[in-house]
Amino acid sequence: MTSIASESVATILCTSKQTRFHIESPNYRELEIDGIFITVTSGSKASGKSTAKGKSKAKAEGIEILNNAKLTLKEGQRYALVGRNGTGKSTLLKAIAEKLIPGIPEGTRVALLQQSRLINENSDGKPDSENGPTSSVLEEVIERATAKQAVEQEIKVLSEGVNASDSYAPVRALRQLKHHRHQQRLFRLDKDARLRSGARGLQARKALVVYEKVVAESNTLLEQENDDITPDTLQAETQEAADLLADLQIQIDPARVSETESQAKKILTGLGFSEALMEKPITSLSGGWHMRAALATTLLQQTDILILDEPTNFLDLLGIIWLQRYLQGLEDTDRPPTLILVSHDRDFISVCSDLIILKEKKLISFHGDLPTYEASQSERKLWLTKMKDAQDKQKAHIEESIAANMKAGKANDDQNKLRQAKSRQKKLDDRWGLQVSNRGGRFKLNRDLVGYHLTAREDIDIAPENRPVVIYLPETLDLRFPGALISLEKVAFRYSPKMPLIVQDITLSVSMGDRIGILGLNGSGKSTLIKMLVDETRPSSGNVTTHPRLKLGYYSQHATDALQDIGREEPGLTALALLSREVKTQTDEINEGELRGLFGKLGLPGRFASDVPLMKLSGGQVVRVELARLIWRQPHCLILDEVTTHLDYETVTALREALRDWEGAVILVSHDRWFMRGVIEGARDEDEEDSEDEDEDEDSPRRRVVYRLKGGKMSVLEKGVDEFEQLMEKRVKKLLQQ
């Protein structure tokens, strides 16, 4: 069966294995769907007529995301969906949320958090708020999660009718409300009919035709004259209006509304909203706070499947730890939703008990965490390699024996030798791989051949792994004479003499090879400090000095937004063209091969750099473009502000490894604890223990220090990231007890 979703620029086309005997599960929190194909095609191709039939229709021209995959979700389980940038994780989540995959029951309630604002702008440029431009953050979150305003509007319509002196008013109000509901349902059915194809599409179009008649009849009743309404109809519909009004009023019962509001406040507080910020107009929020409000809305909804796509991107560590504990706490509720989570933050996805790995267009289910999965994959590869080596040696020995017997048999006309050689050749041709049965015992032809020979005869196959993600950072240029790269001496900053200090009394020295981490909650002054380090802001007092030959690379947390804006302004501009243009402003010698090589070393090879426009690159690929812009100059110091946002976990791992051992200086601002521990503290994974003391062999060991910014003041965290994490854990514990 097939399902299609149309978008302005692309179409998601889905099929799955369904039979006419398929019985829809009554448990909306569980899914088990086989044979899933998902292809993303351009809107023009999707809208054109296709001669393909059946499942081949799902394999139309376009980017294939899944090929004959299986999706299994168990009720109440927490799944981490992992895969490289560009493999289609967000597309898969959208297909699940919009129930485009046949086999997802229509009654399933799915809440999806995507990387988008809570409210968008209309065509006239005004914010699209549910409650109007003056609605508060709290009001908007509750309305989006519960449709409270829609219920209140229906109550208003019915109340005016029931309480009116006109005896026909209750009937008019009831018919008006029903007609409005019919129109809303007609809109959804029309959407289904346009988005679906195959058997489900035919069924949806039939349902649309039937319901169009219902709406037409409803419209006729709405226009009916009072004189044509019989006394029995008047009495029955007046009573129906009163009963419906009572039911709606129960839905906004003060106790229930108060409970919802209390829960909304708890969630918003956990995500960093103060009471004052909750009461501010939703339209006044910045992009990051909009994302937090969208996350609060998603968490507040009553849902069967909860999908969170990179929920930590705009959270500080306090918010991240709170969200971890909140998601873990869902397990203690009466019916916890099934969770699907996408995140590059390894520490954060530890809340999940299971993995869904999107790899090579398949979905691999694994019960356990990410380190356990990676270890099992390494062990399996090692085992397969040993088995294959042993099998190859055995096969080579048999082939040598056959050759020797054939030679001896022909030379001496020894029929026994020749028969022995033919027998062994037959074993290789017909029975190779069948020495061990499916159950692990000795193979017997008359017992084990049936149903097993199709796969058992094959050689041991080690699947070719995806090319590992490796990031190479260039060597730094010679400074010629020693000295600190950047020095801050008792610097402070305020926007005006009457304004409070944003940062104060900060002294910091950065030398080659230093690893400096800066931790702090949002609003603690991190951005101001970074701007002074990169000379975007001059301090109000104190001194900032830099090495005369310093080359600095600065990655801003808004870098990807700026690059995407450039891509929208110049739709045909590629990453290679952009970097070539920037290099040309610095030197006349442009080596395109070197620039291509640089992109390749950062994980953006071939056509992605030279052919695909910036505006069509994924978020993770845009991050690589920005890194290429920074490091082609061979900087002595990299200042990185939330560089892991949008990257997949494999790329984060590769970047962590590259930065940890790079010879230049690194100043890192990040809420990703695992990344910070590796880059700044030099932490290594278990399989890297042999290199753990590498720094101790150096003539001048690296200076590794983690600072905390609080209220504009900077202090050293003696125990590093762990100390800051423990402080945040204590605050989260208090928040959850409120």
Automatic annotation (TrEMBL):
Organism per entry: Cylindrodendrum hubeiense
Regions of compositional bias (Acidic residues) in chain numbering: 685-699
Domain of life of the organism encoding this protein: Eukaryota
Location of the ABC transporter domain: 31-386, 486-713
MF-aspect GO terms: ATP binding; ATP hydrolysis activity
Keyword Cytoplasm: no
InterPro entries given in the database record: AAA+_ATPase, ABC_tran_Xtn, ABC_transporter-like_ATP-bd, ABCF, P-loop_NTPase
Record protein name field: ABC transporter domain-containing protein
Keyword Repeat: yes
Chain intervals for the UniProt region annotation (Disordered): 685-704
Keywords: ATP-binding, Nucleotide-binding, Repeat
